[in-house]
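Subject: sequence -> structure tokens, single chain

Hey, anyone have a minute? Need the predicted structure for the following. Not urgent.
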Amino acid sequence: SSPNYSINHGFQQNFSSACFCGDADGNTIITISDAVYLINYIFAGGAAPDPLCNGDADGNSIITISDAVYLINYIFAGGPAPHCP
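Reply:
Had a minute. Here:
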């Protein structure tokens, strides 16, 4: 039991916040700092995105280095915008 989770028919569901996919640092804008935040989280034990789904830039429902690469491609090379699953 937690204030962020409710039990509904045996499944945990997070109702705490809506996702802004790609905004890993939670400042409501997508910049290179979001990619750096993800790299720090993945490789250096840094803080997790809050909510965690903010770190999922490529929309595959997991956070990996590909999310940081996706953001770099979006910011510097005109790649597709981050999207939620």
